Amino acid sequence: MNIFDWTPELAYIVGLMVTDGNLSKDKRHMSMRSSDLDLLNTFKICLNLKNKISQTKNDGYAKRPCYRIQFGNVQLFQWFEQIGIFPNKTYTIGEIKIPDKYFRDFFKRAFRWRWYYINLSR
Fold this sequence. Notes:
By secondary structure, the protein is of the alpha+beta class. It has helices spanning 8-20, 37-46, 74-83, 89-92, 100-110, 112-120; strands spanning 21-23, 29-34, 54-56, 66-72.
């Protein structure tokens, strides 16, 4: 039984997890990092999380502070795996199963910065 119904917000979350999220090897915990605090607050609201957003060290290249939210949800983790998002996704990413109806919402997040740079280069 699928306990997660596709919505525009969930498709947006999938886009965030594909591009900037992390699924732990423990098959339970996930995290999201960004220097955009508003984006993390939107992420938190969309998933109805109560977890704290904390400031973390950035990778050394970023000029702005970096923030992170970490949470555990076995059912959501398993659902992410069902649609094609796995731990170590940088090396395992393949097809992500997104219904056509929600692809635009996924695309808005997953390719937001890439689209921005493509438009700048024209």
